[in-house]
Structures are given as structure tokens and as C-alpha cells.
Amino acid sequence: MFLEDVLKHRSVQAADPLLRAAGSAVAGRQVRWVHSSEVLDIAPLLRGGELLLSGGQALATASDQRRVDYVRELAGRGVAAVAIETGPVLPDIPELMLVAAESNGLPLFELRKVAPFVGIMQEINSILVGQSVELLQRGDEISHAMAAELAHGGGLDEVLAVLAGQTGTGVRLVSPAGVTLGSAGVGSSGSGGAGGGGGGGAGGSGGASDGGNSDGGLGTEGLAGVSPGAVSTTAVDVPVRGVLAARLELELTEGVDPAFVRVAGERSVDILGLALLQRMPPGLKELAGAELMRAVHSGAQPWRLEQLGAAAGFAVDGPVAAVMIRSAASGRLRPALDAVLAGAVPHAASYADKLELIALAGLPREGTRSARASLLEALGSLEVPEGSAVAIGPLGQGIGEAAWSMAEARRTLDLAPRAGRSRHVLDAEAFGVERLAAESLDAAARRDYVRRTLGPVLEHDEQRNSQLLHTLTVWLDSGCNTAQAARELHLERQSMYHRLQRIFDLCGGDPRGTGRLASLHLATRLARLP
Questions:
Q1: Is residue 217 included in any domain, yes or no?
Q2: How far is the C-alpha of 164 from the C-alpha of 170, rounded, in Å?
Q3: Is there a single domain that holds both residue 251 and residue 395?
Q4: Which structural domain range is residue 356 located in?
């Protein structure tokens, strides 16, 4: 259902919606579901395509930075639009939020009248459910037609021609190496060869996909062979026995319903997988690589990882490091991640699972630390959508510690938003204190330690709206380098000295050269945790 149609519905009109930002992004935008939430950390729980309704209660008390982050995170998750109710609690939508929405292309609406969100959700979502059922039925009909073509001896191009004809799109099947395996319909360029990389991961180890990971409505940029007349391109991963074997690209022209095309593409995955299986079945090494990544993702026992790792080409006792990416575009990012891994480490495997893209990097025995640092730098070159997060896990000594490294990378991503780090790639080893505290201390114990250690500073900030805790944190993180901390805080050095003196007075004196320095540093880091 198009966003424009949702806004015209009587239930939404009752709230008197007014477009406040990103008007150019409204046309042709699809709404998959209508959701209501006052939780500011809602973005990771969304799949994309939602119209999010907010009463503004949480936003009214949030800081300016948190409000901006809220908008950026929703945009990064692919939310269709956000509608915020204004009134006594939130008289107006903050200007910074409007600027963030405009710059991130997220349509933002002001709801100027009170309307029951439950009623809006019930009416719109019931329409969406009905449309979804119809789309699934049409998608299944196309899938059955493709299966019939395959059963009657049709080749890959013939099967793709059925999909192209039924959807009115141009379709291409591309290997992970970028070779065109088959094509049909508008802008068809023909098959580019018989082979070209049935395996899925970097370093030849293969990978895996959930088979349903789709990045509907992608722009045409960055996709080779897209026809000049195509308005947009939908892409769907096609696995064979759990190994990423190809990527289906459907080129949409003007007037074609992108939701229908996306469903048709997703429903055709199994048939295309069968066609590819006849053409180029994956080897045992690729299958083992896919199974290994599933085991790492689920936290399997070390002995199981060692079995699978050896079959997948990993050295059983060789050092490894896990990589985790959380992004609404995890499927689209996978080829780029595989390319980064192939250029940075001797051996690797990857796996896409809904909103998480994970990988395991096998590092050399000599210069292991240097190789991990190079991988961290290489990951920084990976272009990810706004709102995505990337983390590299700690060094694992052997394939048996791969699941542990992955779990710590995941823990880092869980802690990082609240830890205040804005680095593009998060290093789990830089979050060692936070990871240990989150695992070993409950939230009450952490809060009690922070209160006992930093109580006067926290009270000063609360009463005077000052930034002493942030100043102390930056100063300690800089290694007590006053000049560097002043630069990071954009303060004159004299102002920095005045702030530090005030902090020292509240904390019992200059902590340098005393045991209190470590206690204060620990408390500032724990203060950023939930």
C-alpha cells in the first residue's frame, strides 16, 4: 500500500497529518505495516517499510542528540515514514529532528489532532493483510508456473522468462562473482556464462543465506547491467543447499508494483535454486562452510566447530575473528563484505540471517594482531546504510572459539549505542570493560557502583545541567591528556582546567597517581551502560 494512500485513509485524516520533512521521498513509497511505539530504541525491532506512529512522550524528554539518533536509526532501518503527535506534551517537532529527517530521506509527519492509534493500526493493517494474502497467492501462481517449466525440461533462461513475463520486469540471475547466469525480459543481456562462482563466501569457503533475505526497492546504482529504463531494482538472494549461489535482480519499470515484484521474487527462490542445483551443485567444502557459519551463529560447542571448520578449510588451531553487521540491507551488503574479507584475510566465510550479516575471518599465525588490525581498517571502507552497525569480535585462539568471538561482537553491538561510541566499526577489544561488566554484574550493582563513585558529579550535572561527567569521561579516555580532551570537547584549555578542577573538588582531589583513577574510569564507562 502506498504511503500516499495510507495518509488519505479516513482513520489517518482524523489525526490531521502535516508533512514536515522529506516530501520528495513520499511518492511511490510503500507501507508494509503500521506500528505504534514510544520506545526510542525501537529501530532494531523493525524490519523496514513500517509507518511508525509516536505520541511524542519519550521524545519530549529526550536530549537533542537522542532525538536526532532516533530519526537516523529509523531511516537506516528502512522505515517508510514516522508520524509524531503534537500537543501539550510535545508542542512542536524539534527543528533538529526535521533536519535529520530531511537529510536522511525519511518522511516525517506531524499529527495535529488526537486520534486513536489503535484504530488507525486496525484499519490500515487489515487492508495490508488482505493485500499481502493476494500478493502471496499471485506469487505462488508464478512459482508454480516456473516449476512446470522446469519439470518440462526448461533451462534457466526459460524459467526466468516465465518470471519476467508474469511480473512485467527484466530479470537477471548473477553469481556471487558477478557473472550473469541467465536473464530474460526487459533489458535482457543474455547469459554470461555457465559457471562463475556457485560458492558463497570469501576465500572460497562458501557461505549461507536464509533464502528469504530481500532488499526490495533498491536504487539502480551499484547493480551491474541494470537497464537504462529501469526505475528501481529489487534483489533477492538465491541459495542452493544453504550456500549463496546467486542473486536475482528484478528491474522495475514505471507502473510496476514493487511489492508484487518483491513477493514474486521471494516466492521464486526455491525453483531457481533447483534450476541452479541441476546446473552447478555446491561442493562439500561450500556446504561445510555454510553449516559452520550456522553453528557459529547459534553458539555451537567447540568440538562441533572444529569438525565443521576443518571440512570448510579453516585451520582448527588457527586464530579467528568474528564480524557482525546489523543492517536492514544485510543481504545487499554480503557481496561487498565478502570482497573486503577476500582482500584482507587468507580465508573467510559469511552468512546472512534476516537483519544480521556475520562472517568468520581466518587470520595468519604470524603477525596475527597486525592482520586483525588490517581487517578492522578494511571493514571501515565498507559502505553501509545509515543506522547500520559493524563490530569485529575479539581474537579467538582456534576455530573452537569462533562462537565466543561472535557472541562478544554481538554483545559489543548491544552495548555500543548506549556507550556513546560513534566509530564506524566497533572493536570488541575496546569494549572489554563494558563486556565484562555486562556479563558479570547485574544492572543494579553497576548503578550502585556508579552512584557511590560519581554521585557528586552526577548531582551537579542534574542540578545545573552541566557536562562534568562527559568531560571526565573524555579526559580519562584520552589517557588524562588535558590538551587532547580540550580539543575533543572544543574547549579552550583554560576552560578545560576549570572544569577539571571542579570535578576534582567533587571527587576528592586529583586522581592521578592514586588508585582512584582506575575506579573513576571504570565508573564513567559503567555509567554509559543500561
A1: no
A2: 6
A3: no
A4: 284-437
